[in-house]
Amino acid sequence: MWKQLVDQWALVTGASSGIGAEFARQLAGRGMHLVLVARRKDLLDELAAELHAKHATRCEVIACDLSNQDGPQQVVLEIARRGITVELLVNNAGFGVVGEVEDAQVERLQELIRLNINAAVTLTYAFLPGMLERHHGAIINLSSLSAFQPVAYMSVYASSKAFLLHFSEALAVEVKDRGVAILAVCPGVTQTQFFDIAGAAGWLQKHASHSPERVVRSALDALGRRQVVVIGWKNYLLTLLVRIASRARVVKESMRFFRPRRKIEPKSSKLK
Ligand SMILES: NC(=O)c1ccc[n+]([C@@H]2O[C@H](COP(=O)([O-])OP(=O)(O)OC[C@H]3O[C@@H](n4cnc5c(N)ncnc54)[C@H](OP(=O)(O)O)[C@@H]3O)[C@@H](O)[C@H]2O)c1
């Protein structure tokens, strides 16, 4: 798989921070060129300069809000205009919302659905047909440990990740014998800005977590070999446990873990 991807282009969404920036770094280390997408152009430009200096990586930066209705399509058109063929798509951009029903802002939840689900589906259906035609390519979708069960106080986020898990697994078997690999990556708590943006600051300190470096290394090792990778053996055991326990019990348990410690602050997800 990796021999075929050297000197080819990878598109990474949400590349300005966290897991997405780490995907860009490790893919550059493996010899791929990169299209970096997120809203914070200054961070993408910095990363592009870093990767060019370190690995002579060719980087194209596209600043775009993928939660806008036409955002993903604009990225597709811009990539075509720049004459780039995407051989690896990493649908990583995403955010979560933790909170009680009374504190929810429905516009923010709709933004979450457009980013976590719509953008990934639009980009997949834009690039997958070309990969199938060339009999060559791969897609990585960032799902989550929360995809394996309903999660109280994170219901919309966890459902969006369950969507991505099912979407990936179903497509993966459809295209399995046609030269294209599809992988769903399911990290547990990971050391990024995610929980600050989700309105659950402090969560990261309270729970065992993995580094983005570990998440991405495991994902890239699994690509082409598996259809789903859960990061960390303890997290993997949890996915087995929720299959054995009753659904009612599992969702009730999630309340204990995810009950908000403070109210959601209604603000943009952009963090500096
Ligand atoms: N951290 C965890 O514990 C954890 C666990 C399981 C799964 N995940 C998943 O991992 C993925 C990456 O999250 P992370 O932990 O690395 O968090 P992060 O550091 O907050 O990164 C999120 C990325 O998404 C981008 N993004 C957010 N809204 C966007 C929009 N409207 N348009 C375009 N890009 C947007 C952000 O860039 P801009 O702000 O510059 O746009 C940023 O680059 C997400 O899909 C998340 O659900 C995370």
Keywords:
272 residues, alpha/beta, Rossmann fold, binds NADP nicotinamide-adenine-dinucleotide phosphate
What does this structure look like?
It is a single chain. This protein is α/β, with parallel strands linked by helices and 272 residues long. The chain has a single domain (2-258), classed as NAD(P)-binding Rossmann-like Domain (Rossmann fold, 3-Layer(aba) Sandwich), CATH 3.40.50. The chain has helices at residues 2-5, 18-29, 41-55, 71-81, 106-134, 155-175, 194-198, 203-206, 212-222, 233-244, 247-258; strands at residues 9-13, 33-38, 59-63, 86-91, 137-142, 180-186, 228-230. Strand 4, helix 5 (106-134) and strand 5 form a beta-alpha-beta unit. Helix 2 crosses helix 9 (212-222), helix 4 (71-81) packs parallel to helix 5 (106-134) and helix 5 (106-134) runs parallel beside helix 6. It is globular, with a radius of gyration of 18 Å. The model has no long low-confidence stretch (mean pLDDT 93). The structure holds NADP nicotinamide-adenine-dinucleotide phosphate. NADP nicotinamide-adenine-dinucleotide phosphate binds next to helix 2 and helix 7.
The CATH architecture category equals 3-Layer(aba) Sandwich
First-last Cα distance:
36 Å
Radius of gyration: 18 Å
What about the largest sheet? 7 strands, parallel
- The assigned structural class equals alpha/beta
Topology, pairings included?
Elements: H1 2-5, E1 9-13, H2 18-29, E2 33-38, H3 41-55, E3 59-63, H4 71-81, E4 86-91, H5 106-134, E5 137-142, H6 155-175, E6 180-186, H7 194-198, H8 203-206, H9 212-222, E7 228-230, H10 233-244, H11 247-258
Parallel strand pairs: 1-2, 1-4, 2-3, 4-5, 5-6, 6-7
Helix pairs in contact: 2-9, 4-5, 5-6
The structure holds NADP nicotinamide-adenine-dinucleotide phosphate.
